[in-house]
Design goal:
This protein has about 300 residues and is α/β, with parallel strands linked by helices. The chain has a single domain, classed as TIM Barrel (Alpha-Beta Barrel), CATH 3.20.20.210. It contains twelve helices and ten strands. Strands 1-10-9-8-7-6-5-2 form an eight-stranded parallel beta sheet. Strands 3-4 form a two-stranded antiparallel ribbon. Strand 3 and strand 4 form a beta hairpin. Helix 4 crosses helix 5.
């Protein structure tokens, strides 16, 4: 079993943080491209992905919004990611290691980015579809770039922290007094599947992450994600998890030690020898809100738990 981080880290010095990530996960884990929100919105989760999208987006006081032309902050996001990848490429210097890039998924993007005249993209069926298609197009190009930069396997983690809110109709409208209508499973499938297909066709491994409760396991496994990363302290073992694992979807255990992983899988009916070579151990979620010492400890704990399971 491998180990990796979810993505976000505290601090602004990418070189120092990347060196620690490589030292911790370079041999038997998955080296992830750190996100550093302390540098500002263009380096945070939504901004990172906005920099990839072939759609003009601008950062307004209320957040990211589709715009008539590309905004300065979108250009900053693109430039920051390019610089970060250059640094990581130099540090790895052709080493054959797994590298993971995180992007925000289409459901969370739709629940976060606003249309030009206000309110979320989530409220517009056509805009939702366009956003998903743009993300898929961007990922084909970005995976090709990652494969040119790095010698080993490329993993793309699709972050969907808002997925349960979108499916459950719990995303607030712009006024704050109402809620956007829920997106049913077939429509969610139609938004996620092009993104998964784009990652796979470009030669990378698609993984989805959500640290929300009630992760829609059947939906995520059904669209083709190779693994589901989740917070094991919030998840309830059940048939959906067992069926997904039996059909080939790996599980990435967030916030777990070896004993908790064994307990979760044991309650699904799987012995350690059936899962020790599959999946990963991670922190429960991103670490940007932690202190540097806490974040390092969380990554080291994940690596230790994975080594114990292996």
């Amino acid at each position: 079993m491998r180990a990796t981080g979810i993505g976000s880290m505290p601090g602004e010095d990418l070189s120092a943080i990347a060196r620690f990530v490589i030292d911790t996960f370079g041999d038997a884990g998955i080296v992830f491209v750190p996100e550093l929100p302390d540098r500002g919105a263009p380096s945070a989760m939504i901004g990172r992905t906005a920099g990839l999208l072939p759609l003009p987006i601008d950062l307004q006081p209320a957040g990211w919004r589709l715009a008539p032309g590309e905004g300065m902050d979108q250009r900053r996001a693109r430039s920051a990611l390019r610089t970060d990848l250059d640094i990581l490429e130099e540090l790895l210097a052709g080493q054959d290691v797994r590298v993971k890039q995180q992007v925000t998924g289409p459901l969370t993007l739709a629940a976060t980015i606003e249309r030009p005249r206000g309110d979320k993209v989530l409220s517009d069926h056509g805009a939702r579809r366009e956003l998903s298609e743009a993300l898929a197009e961007a990922l084909v190009e970005h995976v090709a770039e990652l494969r040119r930069c790095f010698a080993g396997e490329v993993v793309v983690q699709v972050d969907e922290p808002a997925i349960t809110a979108v499916l459950g109709g719990r995303v607030p409208t712009a006024s704050g007094f109402g809620r956007h209508r829920s997106v049913d499973v077939p429509l969610a499938d139609a938004l996620l599947r092009p993104v998964v297909d784009a990652i796979t066709s470009a030669g990378a491994t698609p993984v989805v992450h959500s640290c929300a409760p009630d992760v829609p396991v059947a939906l995520l496994a059904g669209v083709g994600f190779a693994a589901i990363a989740f917070d094991v302290t919030l998840a309830q073992p059940g048939d959906a998890w067992a069926e997904a694992f039996e059909r080939g979807t790996d599980l990435w255990f967030g916030g777990a030690d070896a004993a908790r992983v064994e307990d979760f899988m044991g309650r699904l009916g799987f012995a350690p020898e059936s899962f020790s070579a599959r999946g990963a151990v991670t922190p429960a979620c991103g670490l940007a809100g932690r202190t540097p010492a806490e974040s390092r400890h969380a990554l080291e704990s994940a690596a230790k738990a994975a080594a114990s399971l292996t």
